[in-house]
Amino acid sequence: MLKIIGAIVLLGGVFALGYYSGSHPAAVKKAVKEISSEVVATTKELSHTAINTSQSLERTLRYRQGVVDAKEKLLEARTDLNEKNFGDAAKELTGAVTHLEEAALAGDEGTAAKTRALAATITGIERELAKGNAVDKGTLAGVQKELDTLLDR
After folding, report:
1. Residue at 90 is within a domain
2. Is 51 part of any domain?
3. What is the pLDDT of residues 42-58, one digit of tens each?
């Protein structure tokens, strides 16, 4: 008995909604259009926000990966310098410069300028090693500290 009463109430509600939408079609269409346009606008906004956020995260990750790879090459160059392998150290520093230039492309303007300046410093050190000149270990330690400050951002 309860199921029958529930079905009758449900059918009555559907009939009332149908009667209302049939007697006021313009108002119902207007309301449906407003709701659908709001849903479309909200969906577009959310999708743009999601895309922008993911692109920003991707750039940040590429920048940080480039700096980490450059730091790895710098540490290998320091090891080569300790073993008096100036040629290998110069190659490692060239690799570090390459990674920093890639990171500068992915970074924002402020960090890209600092990254390029650090790459220029490493290039100068690499040239000295290529000439066969010794490089102070403190210079490479200073470059490593600058790389650490770039990673801390």
Report:
1. yes
2. yes
3. 999 999 999 999 998 99
